[in-house]
Automatic annotation (TrEMBL):
Alphabetically ordered keywords of this record: Kinase, Transferase
SUPFAM superfamilies, alphabetized: P-loop containing nucleoside triphosphate hydrolases
GO molecular function annotations of the record: kinase activity
InterPro entries: P-loop_NTPase
Protein name (Swiss-Prot/TrEMBL): Cytidylate kinase family protein
A Pfam family this chain is assigned to: Cytidylate_kin2
Source superkingdom: Archaea
Amino acid sequence: MIVIVSGFAGSGKSTLAERLAKKQGLKCVHASGLLRQLQERTASELKADEAKANTGWWESREGKAYLERRLKDSSMDQALDAELLRIAKAGDVVLDSWTMPWLFKGNAFKVWLKTSLDVRAKRVAGRDKLDEKEVQAKLAERDEKTATIYRKIYGFELGKDLKPFSLVLDTDKLNEKQVFEACVDALEKWLKTQRFVC
């Protein structure tokens, strides 16, 4: 089974990916953790089992500088996505990724967590003990720049083109437990409609 969870920063995708992986007995791979590893390692040295969610790091000065570097050089993103495709094809995984819903063409349950900028900023500010308005500005900038990267490399519209998704869930008024339960319910229904070839 392959599950791919996506959504902008602060939507709860990393938390949901971890919970779904635990519930289904699958490994969980956070694309942001692998991308961060690419600062110091080559693609062949990436360690998926060490790829943790980077809570708050992308909003830091270092994370912002790395984003600017990615805008100029897409090689890191392309190396990451090649590795994520390899991991997805091996199966039995929950991926926390922005690109895989569009790039992985195999059989997968794909979730987009739709969350407003206001709600995401409030969540991140509360989690990281930061000023909400400052976080909102940083998230908006990051959303725009990340979408630009993927539009330039792959031609899809992050957060706008939702065709690849099995489930689009508006999480603005849902808590973590409600999001998890809604996704588990949708995943169970989806599994009943799938035919797997071994």
